[in-house]
Amino acid sequence: xxxxxxxxxxxxxxxxxxxxxxxxxxxxxxxxxxxxxxxxxxxxxxxxxxxxxxxxxxxxxxxxxxxxxxxxxxxxxxxxxxxxxxxxxxxxxxxxxxxxxxxxxxxxxxxxxxxxxxxxxxxxxxxxxxxxxxxxxxxxxxxxxxxxxxxxxxxxxxxxxxxxxxxxxxxxxxxxxxxxxxxxxxxxxxxxxxxxxxxxxxxxxxxxxxxxxxxxxxxxxxxxxxxxxxxxxxxxxxxxxxxxxxxxxxxxxxxxxxxxxxxxxxxxxxxxxxxxxxxxxxxxxxxx
Length: 288
Ligand SMILES: [Fe+2]
Ligand SMILES: [Fe+2]
Fold this sequence. Notes:
Structural class: mainly alpha
Largest sheet: none
Number of domains: 1
Bound molecules: fe (ii) ion
Distance between the termini: 33 Å
Order of helices and strands: HHHHHHHHHHH
Number of strands: 0
Radius of gyration: 20 Å
CATH topology: Ribonucleotide Reductase, subunit A
Helix content: 55-70%
CATH class: Mainly Alpha
């Protein structure tokens, strides 16, 4: 699906605005903008370690995320240049988490190296095959990631861990900006082809998984640790529904598109219809 000239122009402008704001207000250095001198070992817990390590693992797939994103967007300036900026920003997230784990002593160099080699021993694959669907995925995934880190930021503040609070503040602020960009592009897609874009959004919402599933070692066990994930209900209430509202749609309309696409698939004989009742009244979100 190729973009129209109007879309190209809008995306270029959106990227320029994104980049300009990031340069002026959001650039940060993991070595000098984080108050490492405030590290207090007595405030660290193994729960913090598992969270940081798991988040670091997910952020470590930057090479796979960006190579796939570039392949998908390379002929579209606004989208491709955004992915370059996005990849740079994501690369700092893995870096700052790694630094925290090692500097705090929560993990030794050897433990970290073993973890990293296990993570990078697997390859992240695109969960959806088109740019528009991946844009929907980006908006949802960044929103979920923001919520997860924001919970950690608030928890660190409550515990008086100023250093960790700053780490999560800086990273979550980036994630919020990423969600904002993907959501803006999604709005452009809706302006261009509302039916098609809503059908894609419905498909992605109902098939959404966080990127760490099947990749991060012992992921299911990690999810049992408080703070590693959020519940589907929390995600729906705080990310999906607000996003649908901003985009001028609703869960009812999304369900309609989901049912329609399921029926179309079945008519094509591609696969059996999965009655929407079987996934309940809400999308089946495996993120907690
Ligand atoms: Fe990130
Ligand atoms: Fe992000």
